[in-house]
Design brief:
It is a single chain. It is built from eight helices and three strands. It has 132 residues and is mainly alpha-helical. Strands 1-3-2 form a three-stranded antiparallel sheet. Strand 2 and strand 3 form a beta hairpin. It is globular, with a radius of gyration of 19 Å.
Length: 132
């Protein structure tokens, strides 16, 4: 690599066909997971659950504007991807607690790196947005 180029992570340096076929893009596992973590609520839910387990209502109260329906959909999607564990306790009424799975915990590192990048570059991003 020449001195004028910066190192590029392996995934980004993978050659892609030009143009990228729509079907290939839609079936890409990276696209699939980025859709999940790129939705409005998933990252916030993952970050909160990364701190400790939460009961459903406690989690809903912790996210001011999320509806019960949206929190349910978000948790179900994260559970289906193996990132969140749902545990039902045999109480009356049953109580449910959500926590990150070991796989979900591994997502905290890249999410933290992305958050650090955003904080480092937010002024540049804001300035560019204002100039357009």
């Amino acid at each position: 690599m020449s001195a004028t180029h910066t190192p590029v992570p392996s995934m980004v340096s993978t050659p892609l066909p030009h143009p990228v076929p729509a079907e290939e893009y839609e079936q890409c596992p990276v696209t699939d997971v980025l859709r999940r973590v790129g939705d409005k609520w998933s990252v916030l839910v993952i970050v909160l659950l990364g701190k400790r387990p939460y009961r459903f209502n406690e989690l809903q109260r912790g996210i001011e504007t999320i509806s019960q329906r949206m929190l349910t959909r978000t948790l179900r999607g994260l559970e289906a991807d193996g990132l969140v564990h749902r545990e039902v306790f045999p109480t009356v009424p049953p109580s449910v607690e959500y926590s990150l799975t070991p796989l979900g915990e591994t997502l905290l590192v890249p999410l933290s790196a992305l958050a650090d990048w955003v904080v480092e570059h937010r002024a540049e991003i804001s300035a560019t947005r204002l100039s357009h």
